[in-house]
Amino acid sequence: MNGQEEDSRTFSSWKKNNTTDVMTSPDLSDRDPDAFHSVPESVQQFLSYFRQKFREGNVSEVHTLYETTFNRYSERYFKTTSWPSPEIVAKYVDDDEVFLLFYKELYYRHIYSRLVPTLAQRLEAWENYCELFNFILNDGIMDLDLPPSWLWDITDEFIYQFETWCHYRSRLKNKTEEDIAFLKDNEHVWNVNFLLQYLHAMVNKSNICPWLLNGNEPVGSSDPDDEDFDYSTIPVYRFLGYFSIIGLLRVHCLLGDYKLALMVLQPLDFDDNTALFTRVTACYISLYYYMTFAFLMLRRYEDAVRVLGSTLLHIGRIKQHHTRSYQYEQIHKRTDQMLALLAISLVFSTQHVDESVNSMLREKFGDKLTRMRQGEESVFEELFVYACPKFVSPCTPDYDRPMDRHMEASHLQTKIFMREVGQRLAVPEVKSFLSLYTSIELRKLAQFMETSEESFRSFLFCFKHKTFVFRGSSGQAPAEGNFVSCAPVSFYVDNDVVKVTDTKMESKFGEYFLQHIGKLQDFIQMLERK
Amino acid sequence: MEQLSFQVNELLQSRRYDPDILPDLERYVEAQCLEGAYDGDANLACLKLYQFYPEKTNVSIVSKILLKALAALPSSDFVSCLYLLSEKIQREAPISTIISWADALETGKFVEFWNSLHNHEELLKGLPGIEDAFREFMLAVISRTYLRIHLSLLKKLLAISGQDELFSFLSKHGMTDISDDDILRFPSREENQPRPKAILGEQLPLRKVLESLIHS
């Protein structure tokens, strides 16, 4: 409760400062005056109808208008331009300020996805988010009902725009002095601290954590007049709070704080088939992508394989429902990235994955997987860079040294990851070597490897250390687990003699054969028909 | 200490990203070092504030946090810290030295580790008992690698010169099975025992194959 009060105080005081800032900032209006005359009639009607359904709380209709119609109009009329500005739209929607707050969010989101936003637009988009969130946090949408996918997109886009802002402001090479001066004066815009505070405030306001811990039931009353009124009884707040948790996971990953990223997920129930993250596919994918990425960075390769294996299976099943959705491209890209993460993790894990995931993997990264297994470090780096999120540096760049430093955060994470890869490659190497023997003197082994006894011993220690891994299970919260030995070959040294017992894991061919029996049958049938 | 820990965790609940709590977090780091306690999560929160406000970075605190995280191996705390530190800091002394220690420890180069450590003993000031924490990590790795080991080798690996010192360190960890020819036998554990040649293959019964033939 305390935290919540504190948060809202920060916001109101910040908002005051913010308004003065805006008033003193230069005139940022860059709107096309002709736009006034060019709103097609069908778009006018659409906006008016959209607003009407929005106000009626007709969730299923709003869902269609938001997911399908809006995108259809974007495609038809606004492929290379922005939607009509909110000032113009106001007259088609009876100056409905609440609707316009949401419309503005869509308006800027469209600009971000189709055009290159200007500095002014980035600033305005940020200000609109502040207004929108302050409005929501001040009980503004108690009577509204919106489709979960829209609420997810708002949360997700908020973080996406933060991400692009961090990259934008650290590319200083081609910025004008005016731009730089403006950036210097507007430290609060897209500030990481405010971003985190908004997400936390949303989580607190919605009371989502008690709701989750109470077995998906509100702990308080659903009557706003009651003293123990519980915001989680209102779906929009419940969803926004829940999605903000997953937003926090993403932000912490972008900042390189993987431990905190996983800790944020503590209250989530992953075994629940009706969990809120299953309601929006993009949310489901985001959750599992960032979670498994955090596993990878925390060296939890066994967990990464376990979770990626089942996630990719699930996505394979639901993907077909999205072939025409505007999210299809994104789902597709993320799936490939997750496959790449799986390929990397598999090299360092002792597990096998389901045959159908395996065949996806072979098709997409078969060659790369083999090369990684042979210890080719450049392939690890290539896949990592392809599969990692767009890391950001949260602090202000040095505006007095106009350089492009937007890739620094990425380089840092890649470098640390590659350090780990370099160390860990000792594991497959030791394995391939030890598998040849059952009992051999350590001195001799060192000779065969053309190294000193001491450094060969280090090699064995390294193997034992790197195969002693932190592993969780499906019933545990993502941050929890225990240390266990997961070695691809087991050995021990008895005084001076290395004793090896190679535990063979037979590959599973059965499923593969069964699949091909089926394929052959189909083929025969096809031939017979002809 | 307990009170401080409670206080800091309260602060992290309500004001995790507020740079004004840095003095408290830093005081907490110093206290952990002196008293042999460890709170990795609070220390990460401190590094995160340095990440947000690089001008507030206190290199001596960073170095202490890294050493404490290193002593917490095999946990991933050390690498978690590195993800939050800029490349610039990582290149600077003494941070670069500590990172090279981590490399040595994690690749099993224990002798190398001790050599470098003894050349930079000033870094361990204010961290009493940290050397034994490193030894404990090493001993755990060694006992998963070796079933029996000669004491002379163990002394070298753990950088313990005196016999009595070694005995008291080992007995603290329940390792007392030492033969007359100075060979220590570690307590048996899964990793230092011969394992059955378990072959975890799969069974594909004819029935299953027939089923698939009939269905298609």
From TrEMBL, chain A:
Pfam families: Paf67. Residues 10-27 have a biased composition (Polar residues). The keyword Glycoprotein does not apply. Residues 1-30 are annotated as: Disordered. The chain crosses the membrane at residues 239-264, 276-298. The keyword Ion transport does not apply. InterPro entries: eIF3l. Keywords: Cytoplasm, Initiation factor, Membrane, Protein biosynthesis, Transmembrane, Transmembrane helix. Its main location: cytoplasm. GO terms for cellular component: eukaryotic 43S preinitiation complex; eukaryotic 48S preinitiation complex; eukaryotic translation initiation factor 3 complex. It comes from the Eukaryota. GO terms for molecular function: translation initiation factor activity. It is found in: Cytoplasm. GO terms for biological process: formation of cytoplasmic translation initiation complex. Component of the eukaryotic translation initiation factor 3 (eIF-3) complex. PANTHER family: EUKARYOTIC TRANSLATION INITIATION FACTOR 3, EUKARYOTIC TRANSLATION INITIATION FACTOR 3 SUBUNIT L. Belongs to the eIF-3 subunit L family. Component of the eukaryotic translation initiation factor 3 (eIF-3) complex, which is involved in protein synthesis of a specialized repertoire of mRNAs and, together with other initiation factors, stimulates binding of mRNA and methionyl-tRNAi to the 40S ribosome. The eIF-3 complex specifically targets and initiates translation of a subset of mRNAs involved in cell proliferation. This is Eukaryotic translation initiation factor 3 subunit L. It comes from Galdieria yellowstonensis.
UniProtKB/TrEMBL annotation, chain B:
One of its GO terms (biological process) is regulation of translational initiation. It comes from the Eukaryota. Its main location: cytoplasm. Gene3D superfamilies: ARM repeat, domain 1, Winged helix-like DNA-binding domain superfamily/Winged helix DNA-binding domain. One of its GO terms (molecular function) is translation initiation factor activity. InterPro entries: ARM-type_fold, CSN8_PSD8_EIF3K, eIF3k, PCI_dom, Transl_init_fac_sub12_N_euk, WH-like_DNA-bd_sf, WH_DNA-bd_sf. The keyword Metal-binding does not apply. One of its GO terms (cellular component) is eukaryotic 48S preinitiation complex. Pfam families: CSN8_PSD8_EIF3K. It is found in: Cytoplasm. Residues 38-202 form the PCI domain. Keywords: Cytoplasm, Initiation factor, Protein biosynthesis. PROSITE patterns: PCI. Component of the eukaryotic translation initiation factor 3 (eIF-3) complex, which is involved in protein synthesis of a specialized repertoire of mRNAs and, together with other initiation factors, stimulates binding of mRNA and methionyl-tRNAi to the 40S ribosome. The eIF-3 complex specifically targets and initiates translation of a subset of mRNAs involved in cell proliferation. PANTHER family: EUKARYOTIC TRANSLATION INITIATION FACTOR 3 SUBUNIT 11, EUKARYOTIC TRANSLATION INITIATION FACTOR 3 SUBUNIT K. Component of the eukaryotic translation initiation factor 3 (eIF-3) complex. This is Eukaryotic translation initiation factor 3 subunit K.
